[in-house]
Amino acid sequence: MPAKREFTKIQKGEIRRKIAKEKKKKKDIKGYTRLVALRMYSQGMSNKIISESLEYNYSYISELVSKYINEGIEAIVEDKRTTNNRRMSYEKEAEFLEGFRESAEAGELITIKEILDLFQNLEIIPNQI
Q: In this structure, are residues 50 and 42 in contact, taking their beta carbons and an 8 Å threshold?
């Protein structure tokens, strides 16, 4: 088992300041919780206690610590995943779905597979977004 990593005073201060800043925003609760996990770790709490308190997987705490040490605080706060992996703008999406809406209102059955097949055949240029 690898030795427990220690944070410097500078790193601890950086985490504390970022927590205060994120707490005021109240925008990204997941990023805030990841910061709290780092803060708890920096105070000497075990991965087990942190994972139980924040309902994270035990091994995730080590991943967070490594990510912070290797990539910095922004890698912890920013979540690169998005809920809408869009390949088109909202306007183009509405236009695309309008045909299906008309078919549905006419009483036709539409399956997700049909929508997906047509969507995958679209030629979407990344800059159209």
A: no
